[in-house]
Amino acid sequence: MKTIAIIGAGPAGMEASGSLARLGYHVVLIEKEATVGGHLKNLFQLFPDRRPGKEILTHLVQTIKHPGIQIKVNSEVSEVQKLDNSFALKINEETMNADAVLVTTGFDLYDATEKEEYGYGIYPNVITSADLEQMFHNGKVVTEEGKTPKRVAFIHCVGSRDEKAGNNYCSKVCCVTAVKQAIEIKELLPETEVFCYYMDIRMFGPYYEELYREAQEKWGVMFIRGKLSEASQNMDGSILMKAEDTLAGKPLRMNTDLMVLMAGMVPSASSKKVAQQFKMEEGQNRFFKSADNHYRYNESQQMGVFIAGACVAPMNITDTIANARAAAVKIDEYLKN
Amino acid sequence: MKTIAIIGAGPAGMEASGSLARLGYHVVLIEKEATVGGHLKNLFQLFPDRRPGKEILTHLVQTIKHPGIQIKVNSEVSEVQKLDNSFALKINEETMNADAVLVTTGFDLYDATEKEEYGYGIYPNVITSADLEQMFHNGKVVTEEGKTPKRVAFIHCVGSRDEKAGNNYCSKVCCVTAVKQAIEIKELLPETEVFCYYMDIRMFGPYYEELYREAQEKWGVMFIRGKLSEASQNMDGSILMKAEDTLAGKPLRMNTDLMVLMAGMVPSASSKKVAQQFKMEEGQNRFFKSADNHYRYNESQQMGVFIAGACVAPMNITDTIANARAAAVKIDEYLKN
């Protein structure tokens, strides 16, 4: 029986493990953290259908309960040796042999402290969308001072489409996440004013536009085509935003009790490490480079090393799951030849 | 050996046929037209890498050259009978038995004549992006009068994000197609002025933003956040556009020699027919409804009937190919149980 090592047990790695095990392979799923699930563990509800993240996680946990799958948590690949038609991998002082490797090392959130002018890590009422998601988990959205925010402002494209940040690309999921979170705030706190500061509203997927309409028509979320230039803290802890309204072409100042930064996706630290170990190529955007952009999307430039999910490009959960299954098909074909 | 009927031989149907045949199934690929390839046949170059559409088509044609695949062109399913664990399908007066069915009936282009105020089908210098793609195939972009256009204007979101047209959704590929075509025009005709009238520029995929920058910085394509209200024809055959500049908040008039409508995607006529035959559910957006939006994306609400590609939602070629492979994995699992 042939063995596949899968590096990273987020949604891509978990789904691919299930597909490959059901195709008859022995899978070793390697996760550096103590638990599987990756970023999905932190998502309270998914867009656009407000599905609890937990339901999808439960599905994925079920899918990897298979006799063909060996799960190694708290584990990292420390050494790689390329053999003739396989790889010798050193994991926690043990060595295993893999006939193929699937890299599913996902993404890291952009470190919002790098945008110093936005004040994340300096002013406590500047938070990220991940912090807000955690508040939704806890069922309570409050300012640092423990008060109900009278106003919340979302800042789209933090560390995305940003030459200064070194990330020209769009992170694809932040617009729709912001709109979803804006609605969630209005549901919890109907009296709170909610603003979204955007460059372009990228609601491209099925039922994203409907969510955008709901935010405007049902909940009165206000969308401002504008760019934040800097934020500072008022005496009472609230945030003074200086922005440019790019529709009106005018500078704009606004106070907000909570400012939410939609931090984008960057290639993960694990991806960088794995890229070196397997001598894989990065694209211009620093995500992994596919052997072909159209029909060899899940193959790296290295024979026998495959890639899937958000380590290839920013993608949502639905696309990640499809992508993982697609990778499984190509690995099966590779191992049969 | 189990048999899978695949309805529609565009990219999704072709790729899934190859994957399923290599998984050991007998595939009958049914295409109503005389040749395979679907809309891909009409694409001169793909975004974002300007890959000739023909190269991808060649790959797909290779993939279906497999002894396990029987291709039936000029063929349509005329009758469906649900049996215990299979379907009896009548095709061209013959009846076949299928253990599973994969529907890959793709999309139709939005009929731009429905937007009467834009003048498509009335004024010859109002064309669609599909017409322009055909001009690129022919290597020559000219007006109806046979002249080199001094100015070309692209109108984004024709029949997409348009409540009046009955399509609230974004068609996902038009923005990046317009930017690609704008660059192609500048390459052929460097002296021609090119304008894009957009609502939001949705360049969300890998290397889309780079294309957008190239259009602006290298080629001087002008992007106007604006909405066309109506078009009329001048004496010389050129087009007078009346629009609203939604950045400046002002009405705007502009003459153009060629006006290109970015017609969106709508569910295909074939999808509607197949939906009735198999009693499949449509979503609110009239594309097929998945059994689950996140992890049963390729399953319809009918047991044994699967869906993939642009009949599920607007998607590009890369996503369509991944989606087809993902469907193959799920069909394999279904037939093994």
Largest interface: A-B, 55 and 55 residues
Give the N-to-C terminal Cα separation of chain A: 14 Å
Strand content of chain A: 25-35%
Order of helices and strands of chain A: EHEEEHEEEEEEEHEHEHEEEEEHEH
Question: Structural class of the secondary structure composition of chain A?
Answer: alpha/beta
Mean pLDDT of chain A, nearest integer? 97
Number of domains of chain A: 2
Say what the CATH topology of the largest domain in chain A is: FAD/NAD(P)-binding domain
Instruction: Using the coordinates above, name the CATH class of the largest domain in chain A.
Output: Alpha Beta
Describe this structure in words.
- The structure is a homodimer of 337-residue chains.
- Chain A is elongated and about 65 Å long.
- The mean pLDDT of chain A is 97.
- In chain A, helix 1 (11-22) links the parallel strand 1 (3-7) and strand 2 (26-30).
- Chain A has two domains: 3-106 and 268-336, FAD/NAD(P)-binding domain, CATH 3.50.50.60; 110-264, FAD/NAD(P)-binding domain (3-Layer(bba) Sandwich).
- Chain A has helices at residues 11-22, 53-63, 129-138, 174-188, 208-217, 269-278, 317-336; strands at 3-7, 26-30, 45-46, 51-52, 69-72, 77-82, 87-91, 94-98, 100-103, 107-109, 126-128, 151-158, 193-198, 222-233, 239-245, 250-256, 258-263, 265-267, 305-307.
- By secondary structure, chain A is α/β, with parallel strands linked by helices.
- The two termini of chain A are 14 Å apart.
- In chain A, the strands form five sheets. The first copy, chain A, has a seven-stranded mixed beta sheet with strand order 11-17-12-13-14-15-16. Chain A has a five-stranded parallel beta sheet with strand order 5-2-1-9-19, with helices on both faces.
- At the A-B interface, helix 1, helix 2, helix 5 and helix 7 of A face helix 1, helix 2, helix 5 and helix 7 of B.
